[in-house]
Amino acid sequence: MQIMTMPSITIELTQKELDAVVEYASQCGETISGLARKALIREATLADGYGSDDPQYEYQMMIPSQASRTKENTIIQENYNRIRRILGWRQITL
User: Fold this and answer.
1) What tens digit of pLDDT does each residue of 27-61 get?
2) Which of 17, 29, 31, 91 has its CA 20 to 30 A from that of 39?
């Protein structure tokens, strides 16, 4: 029997950074490790600018499907500003 282990990565975060990452992962319906894996691969391959060749690396903030475009924008803005508040950053308007 062969046992395969997955390598792991350890990162150091401040408590605010951890809280922000936990919040965003929750908004995307992802685990922290799953979100980090997807985000790093998307960044490393320019998948956001040129399109992903593999849907397993896609993630996005969960928005109710019946939301109007205006409501969707409001939800997205509120979600980003929630994370920005956690980090002590200024609020934004989309």
Assistant:
1) 999 999 999 999 999 999 988 778 778 888 899 99
2) 91
